[in-house]
Amino acid sequence: MQHHFCPKSFPSTPKDIISDESRRKQILIVGAGASGLFAALSLKRMGVVNVTVLEASNDIGGRLKAVRPTSSDLTLDVGAEWIHSTDGSRVLNSMMEGLALDGDNDESNKVELITYQPKWYFGKRRSKLMTTIYKETKFKSATWYSWLKDNVYEKVKDNVELNSPVSEIRYNNKQEGGEKAVEVVLANGEIRTADVLICTVPLGILKQSIAKDRTSASASLQFNPALPIKLQEAIHAIDMPPGLRVLFQMKEKFYPDLTSANSLFTLLCNPNEMTLAYDATLGKDREENILAVVAIGNEHAGKRFGGMSQKKVGKEALRIVDDLFDGQGTVNLIGEPLVQDWSEEPFIRGTYTFPGSNRHRRTLGQSIGESGQVIFAGEHTSMKYYSLVPGAAYEGRRAALDAVGMMAD
């Protein structure tokens, strides 16, 4: 995991570059994950005043989420967790470069990181190869969620509306007599209008929006008119599989740094299908023993855990721990496991996008509408940095620039 896994630079967002006329135009952003919040901050930096972020859930972050698995103040990520670079500080600084607002504290982006180079095991066999080549960065006491909240959300929180799920996006409206180009219908029936809309909902939600067997339970978003056929084909073509993380508090640390339930050969052949059990507090100088199990992929997460209740997911994950460590999971377990199943989150429906054709990703990132008034952004629209938080941030900044360009036309 080297530097090139994350962007070295991000789209420039010059300060206060728009005209007075454009400044008054309305931009709506659907989704307050990393991409949506970075889009909002970029727009604010460039001088756009009327920006509203509509978030369906009761919290920001999207697939960034932190929890307290014990009664102490320990917080751990249960969504994105690794920075995926050997120089995490450079990545975080690059993400925020050029986004300072008047009155910002230059120290706001400072956070303590740790070098993450776990000892890898496949079953009971240690892998010198993976232990040597796998090296990256993690937060020491902070989390991806807290970093996003402190450094981005706090600057745009007055623009964010939580508990505001969108049920329909109407575009291609005729612009006569000052009429806005886009209408957004909220789940409560309220209608919002905008000159430009940035849609940052996860690919899993876009897949539901074009499903043939749409029902109120399976599809939470509708586009009117229907999305262009090429865009629908791209949505179908890119995979966003199931995935989950389970945290266990243990009496004793009976497990090594990281153990793969896959064989080394299997993992190298298909690194997108995996089940890992790892020390969630490695390098964090904590006394708690927290063992995490992560399952990702259509086989490892979908077939093994699909359709289970959270309680059954916890039991099945504990069975994996017992199989790997000779029953020590059940013997040492304290309390109930903490389960985060991203496949079951109603406004997420999956983990992150898997590799696919750049042609399809390029299509996912294109705007739609007669004047391109609907822009899509998220890790799924990135051709090079998909699945990564920095990739989502990059696309949010890119979408903001696209929106400003449309308002200037």
From TrEMBL:
Top EC class of this enzyme: oxidoreductase
Keywords: Oxidoreductase
Keyword Hydrolase belongs to the record: no
Listed GO MF terms: oxidoreductase activity
This enzyme's EC code(s): 1.5.3.-
Domain Amine oxidase: 153-400
Record carries keyword Oxidoreductase: yes
Tree of life domain: Eukaryota
InterPro entries, sorted: Amino_oxidase, FAD/NAD-bd_sf, Flavin_monoamine_oxidase
Pfam families with a match to the protein in the record: Amino_oxidase, NAD_binding_8
Name of the molecule in the record: Flavin monoamine oxidase family protein
Organism per entry: Skeletonema marinoi
Lineage of producing organism: Eukaryota, Sar, Stramenopiles, Ochrophyta, Bacillariophyta
